[in-house]
Amino acid sequence: MNGLLAIVGRDIRLALRGGADALTLVLFFVMAGAIVPFAIGPDRILLQKLAPGLVWIAAFLAMLLGLDRLFRADEDDGTLLLFRHAAIPLEAVVGGKMLAHWLLTALPVLAASPLLALLLSMDMAGWTRTALSLLLGTPALAAFGTVGAAVTVSLRRGGLLAPVLVLPLSIPVLIFGAGAAAAAQGGTAATLFLAAISLVSVAFCPFAAALALRVGSE
Amino acid sequence: MTLASADTGTLGMAAMSPGTPLLTVRDLALSRGGRRLFSGLGFVLAPGTLLLLRGPNGAGKSSLLLTLAGILRPDAGALDWGGEPPALHLLAHAAGAKARLTLEENLAFWRKVNGPTGLTPAEALRIVGLGGLDRLDAGYLSAGQTRRLALARLLVTDRKLWLLDEPTAALDAEGDAIAAALIAARLGSGGAVIAATHHDLPGATATLTLGDSQ
Amino acid sequence: MTLDRAAPKQNWFSRLAHPGAFMAWSGPLLWPLGIVTALAFAAGLWFAFFNSPPDYQMGDTVRIMYIHVPNAWLSQAVYGVMFLASLGTLVWRHPLADVTAKAAAPLGATFTALALYSGSLWGRPTWGTFWEWDGRMTSTLVLFFIYLGIIALWRAFDDQLRAARIVAVVTLVGALDIPIIKFSVDWWNTLHQPDSILTPEGPKMPASILTPLLIMLLAFTLLFALLEIVAMRTEILSRRADSLSRQAAARSA
Questions:
Q1: What are phi and psi of A116, to 5 degrees?
Q2: ipTM of this model?
Q3: How far is B34 from chain C (nearest CA, A)?
Q4: Most buried among B154, B164, B205, C106, using CB within 10 Å?
Q5: Which of C157, C174, C191 has the CB atom closest to A185's CB atom?
Q6: Do B86 and B22 form a contact (C-beta atoms < 8 A)?
Q7: pTM for the full model?
Q8: In this complex, do C250 and B2 lie within 8 Å of one another by their Cβ atoms?
Q9: Do residues A65 and A51 make contact, with C-beta atoms less than 8 angstroms apart?
Q10: Spatial distance between the Cα atoms of B213 and C6, rounded to a whole number of angstroms
């Protein structure tokens, strides 16, 4: 547990010192949502109807965008190799990296979501539902993303491949996430399914990602 | 896929020191990228042994170290650790140091991940000759200093077996002496060291030469 | 990369599955298999075009079903083959499993694309649109994306041994995820489209339609088997050629 927390702490410290990564992601999230009115017109009623789905798509893309940095730096400076002999199993290392990834991408996105809600003329209740669904759904996105990042870490140009692999696998998260956020009908069921997917994927994906790292370095 | 069946590994037999061996390697074979690096390789590693791996570039020295570390899977052969594989330290080409963390933070991180069974980061830094630089970001270090930082990582967690890939690369004469002293200390306290190197290390008890004729 | 070692004397399966042995027994099989496949297609198409009734609602367009359903079946069956091959790669580290999975991916993608294509051709006269966000079509589209991702991953690696193991992990994760995708798409579909869509392959199907359908299913499955074996042989030969070039380079160095 100590080792896992050390990894989380180190990744957060590195991200804070590395400066702009988390900020860039938030910027992307807000911009991706904010360009929509330019494309479909500033119709408040229409925007309000689309807003939960738009926020979810923006968050979905922002989470995918941050994937490449998940293992890349550790692979490049040899840290990933040394993790193979850590006192904690590789699965726990991957779990720590996954938790740090969630804290560094999902939380900033969540923090910036009121701004996007404002721009897309969401009301308070709509934002609350959307924020709750993001909180419940983003762990699953981080988990699937961890597998994608682990699979492409040994590729020089894996930057685009990981999102392409992860995107179709994450469609249930998007469906239930947007369903829970919209909540016109079936909102409770969608929220429960979303929580279930997050729980299962967070439990399972570190093993798949660690397996990919092991067999990939053989 | 067909392979060149010629066995390119020339085997020097390591010393058979008394006492229970730490590791017995039997009939080890490994290929990388369709090329057989070595086969039929075997040696016994007893506590207190410094085994040098020699051979030209691409002969498989680093790959052998990775195989012993359990990262590469051999084609054939057995690694007999006499029970559970022990915790070991690997010193690879890349130092595994984060440029944005201070030296102290880098070492403290590995101490937490691997277990605080060795020296404190400050002591380890003093021993490798980086004393007083605790608060410096690792990114400011020269190549030789980064190598010393990598050596310091071996000290913050106590592990019996060290696998060193070119431990003296980029080190100056003083650094060479420090590395030699660290290895001697490790051997003296019942550990063992396997080092892939182009240079002689003092105190070597055995040599294994890989792929000498190509 | 030990594809050419002498066949290990184990059970019949590992003897047959050894790449060298596979090359030996699959070669003579190609012509007979090709002829049987062609005959099955001839019989199936004859039934489909001339010896089955038009649908009382859809008329002659129902005959698209004889192409559509076999492709839809194969789009999922081929993933099943890849799933089993991935287990073979990860658990038994069998070189033929790598080759099986690699050869199957483009075939699966093609059958899935054909299922989507024939489905949309069928949808135009039936539903009045080429594309309908119907549950089956949507999950087939997602499956198509997954196939394309897997093919892209295969192509991204130079080292095919490493590629095989990495792709196997992705294939397994996909296999666990596909039921969840299917479920979520169905849930989403019923939420957004409560009115039931005409399901062409309904439960009660007269024998005059069932017979050609079964023959076409068999024909397409045989076609997959044939193409899979040819693709596997090509892959094994290309790996041998690759290895020979490497040896030549090593000798001249």
A1: -65, -40
A2: 0.90
A3: 6
A4: B164
A5: C191
A6: yes
A7: 0.87
A8: no
A9: no
A10: 28
